[in-house]
Each structure stands twice: as C-alpha cells, then as structure tokens.
Specification:
This protein has 52 residues and is mostly helical. It contains three helices and no strands.
Length: 52
C-alpha cells in the first residue's frame, strides 16, 4: 500500500498535503476514540493534552 500511495503522490494525482491531512484526521480519531496505539505513554500523554 505504501508504494501505491507514494506512486500517486509522485504522479501528482494526490497531493502530499492531502495525505498529511488524511493521516492527521485518522490519528486524531484514534486518539479520541480510545483505540490502542503503539506509542510511548509519556510522549502520547503530552500530545493528547496539547490537542484537547
């Protein structure tokens, strides 16, 4: 999947900005939905607190 995403960005079919926005939206959803992430608890606490 990574290679396909990289290819469409290189072919300018999807902008890198659009990928960044999508990843950001997914991560925010995971952080606010109590979905388990593989993160360091200390650093993730700082991220969650900053984004409240």
């Amino acid at each position: 999947m990574y290679n396909r995403i990289l290819q469409v960005v290189e072919d300018e079919k999807i902008s890198e900005k659009r990928i960044d926005e999508s990843v950001n939206r997914i991560l925010k959803h995971k952080l606010t939905s109590d979905i388990q992430l593989h993160l360091n608890p200390e650093t993730s606490k700082n991220v969650v607190e900053k984004n409240k």
